[in-house]
Amino acid sequence: MLKNTITGMLILTCTGCVLLEKKDPIPPVIDPADAVVPVLLMPTATAISAAECAGDMALPVELSRKFTAVSDPELLAQSIGEANEGKLCQGQVYVAKQNTQVMLFRAWNGSNPASELGNWWALKSPRGQISDYRRDYQICYQWSPLDKMTLCSLKAGAKVVVGTGQSTTCSEYLEYPTSAKKQVYVVNAEANLFDCNSYNAEFNWTPIITK
């Protein structure tokens, strides 16, 4: 009797109940004007990728304490060249510190005295075979016979660019690749260098060793 009473109550309680059917959610409708459009950031284009350059940007240990790295995009742009056009492949702008001595070397064209204090200098004195020096510093034969060398000191506070060499095309028969050798770009060398001494190139023949 009690069991039948409870069953009847449950039936009465559920009278009028609606069974809910599970449905997939309906996505909201978004007005196209309100849609968020992703913005694609394009990489900044550069004339030369550092990955295409030889060597690295680190200063020689003996010179690292004599320079302070600074930002000067305009000066840096002047020193960087396109592939096969010479100049630098990569570089960093530096300012020479006070109370330090930095020696710079330049091999140049003795038939053109105005080229003695040009823009391009090296951190080390020319040594070894002339052909190797031309390749290391991308100096075409038609630009200079390299018969003179000038040694100068860099003034404190002078701003220069130090970097590695860009590839150069001298002719259809001669090209120089990028180089890991450090070069120094000096604007207005006459004002930024002092205590200069010049030297003549002389014949110095060494025997060729063949196997």
Provide an overview of this structure:
The chain is of the alpha+beta class. The chain contains five helices and ten strands, in the order H-H-E-H-E-E-E-H-E-E-E-E-E-H-E. The chain has helices at residues 2-13, 61-64, 73-79, 130-137, 189-192, and strands at residues 67-70, 88-96, 103-108, 120-122, 148-154, 159-165, 168-171, 174-176, 182-186, 193-200. The strands form three sheets. Strands 1-2-6-9-4 form a five-stranded antiparallel β-sheet, with helices on one face. A three-stranded antiparallel β-sheet has the order 3-5-10. The longest helix has 12 residues, at 2-13. It is globular and about 50 Å long. Mean pLDDT is 82; it is low at 1-23 and 32-48.
What about the largest sheet?
Answer: 5 strands, antiparallel
User: Any low-confidence stretches, pLDDT <50, length ≥5?
Assistant: 1-23, 32-48
Bin the helical content.
10-25%
Strand order of the largest sheet: 1-2-6-9-4
Could you say which overall geometry the principal axes of the C-alpha atoms support? globular
Q: How many helices in DSSP terms?
A: 5
Q: Strand content of the residues, in percent?
A: 25-35%
Radius of gyration using CA atoms only: 36 Å
Question: What is the H/E order?
Answer: HHEHEEEHEEEEEHE
The termini sit apart by 120 Å
Structural class: alpha+beta
- Mean pLDDT equals 82
Q: What is the tally of beta strands? A: 10
